[in-house]
């Protein structure tokens, strides 16, 4: 049985993906930063990434910014309504080099790379209302 989807339901499922491949960094180091931004709003994420002292925060910042620009330009979504629904880091291929050593020998150097995927979704009005209520409660305590 095929179910037809109304235009309002299509707008509800809009999501934007951005993928950065072969970033010369360990996946473990990038996950440390990704874990901090998962589930946060788009604007809050940009502020957090700007102030983080880690080297991994700059490529993630560029990727999140690019995903937000794609959402506003290609799909017409408002950046204030976006949040990071999914963020994952996968290990990539190793860049293998050889470093010359003493007595004509060589030493292999393996530089890890990783692939970063960010998915932005539009937050519904009910979810935003629930978040503001939760925030008010936390500030009053």
From TrEMBL:
One example of a Gene Ontology biological process annotation: translation
PROSITE patterns recorded: RIBOSOMAL_L22
Quaternary structure note: Part of the 50S ribosomal subunit.
Upper classification of the organism: Eukaryota, Viridiplantae, Streptophyta, Embryophyta, Tracheophyta
Role noted for this protein: The globular domain of the protein is located near the polypeptide exit tunnel on the outside of the subunit, while an extended beta-hairpin is found that lines the wall of the exit tunnel in the center of the 70S ribosome.
UniProt organism field: Austrobaileya scandens
Entry protein name: Large ribosomal subunit protein uL22c
UniProt main location, coarse: plastid
SUPFAM superfamilies cross-referenced by the UniProt entry: Ribosomal protein L22
MF terms (GO), sorted A to Z: rRNA binding; structural constituent of ribosome
Gene3D superfamilies the UniProt entry points to: Ribosomal protein L22/L17
Gene transcribed to yield this protein: rpl22
Subcellular location: Plastid, Chloroplast
């Amino acid at each position: 049985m095929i179910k037809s989807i109304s235009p309002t339901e299509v707008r509800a499922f809009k999501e934007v993906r951005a993928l950065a491949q072969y970033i010369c960094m360990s996946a473990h180091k990038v996950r440390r930063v990704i874990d901090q931004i998962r589930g946060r709003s788009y604007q809050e994420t940009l502020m957090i990434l700007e102030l983080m002292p880690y080297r991994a925060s700059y490529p993630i910042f560029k990727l999140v910014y690019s995903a937000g620009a794609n959402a506003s330009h290609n799909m017409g979504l408002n950046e204030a309504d976006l949040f990071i629904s999914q963020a994952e880091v996968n290990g990539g291929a190793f860049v293998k080099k050889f470093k010359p050593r003493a007595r004509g020998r060589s030493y292999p150097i393996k530089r890890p790379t990783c692939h970063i995927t960010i998915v932005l979704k539009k937050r519904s009005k009910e979810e935003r209302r629930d978040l503001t209520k939760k925030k008010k409660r936390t500030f009053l305590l």
